[in-house]
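User: For my dataset I need records formatted as: sequence, then structure tokens, nothing else. Please produce one.
Assistant:
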Amino acid sequence: MKRTGRILFCLLPLLLTIGLQNLVSIPAFGISAILTILQNYPSGTLAGIYEKLFALWTSSTFTTGISVLYAVTALAVFGFWYAKKLADDQEQVPVRQAFNWQIVLALLLLAVGLQYVTTYLMNFVALLRPDWMRAYEALLETAGFDSVSPLLAIYSCLIAPLSEELIFRGVTLGYGKKAMPVIPAVCLQAVLFGVFHMNIIQGIYAAFIGLFLGYVCETGGTVAVPVLLHAFFNLIGTSFNSLLFYRMEQPFFFLLWLTTGVLLTFTGIFLFQYGVQRRDLSLAPDVTAQNQEPF
């Protein structure tokens, strides 16, 4: 029963994020509705007011603004929680010493490779369930996320990686490891990361990415490592996705770019492991010297 309670406790960060989203979005919708009504009453018609509200609520500025407010709030809440309860156990390497050029390059290669792999994964799911893809594309268009604004870029590449990594690779994974072995804990936080995105298509590839984020967090020894991978992944997806080639309708290019994505992903993993080994050796020269055999 005690272990079951600990596992169920791992769901608390996800539930808290949903509560924070409502805490931010409900007042924002209410205040914007009141202001719109006051500005257009009594001269405006009910239909006209509704059209203006719908245009406002589906605009990229409004939806991104709510996302930013939520993410900043979550960053403060989970940052405090992580620092007070989990950082002493989770942070094995100081952030200022967590990276070398091999690790940074590995995370960049891994981000590019995962962009290819997740694109093919999404298209494979879309072949099986095209209604899921249509619903996902409609959601992006309605939310105004089909075009990239400066605010959306800042949110996607900086604020979201910080807040989401603290929530899932920081707090959720931290408590998960107290309730179960590392591998199941990494899988659990990945599934919860997928659920957090609240739609099937995005949830599937988010859970897939969450496995790699959990891996680099656990191997890298600090939550700062998955923050950088997350930032790289979102940066490529928002700013450079048009430069990536897919051409899935042609078998040769389908296999070519799928193979490229898989190779980049594995190369990133191997280089990351090598970089972590080099980093850890440089952080413990005395231990290394003691373990070396004399000539």
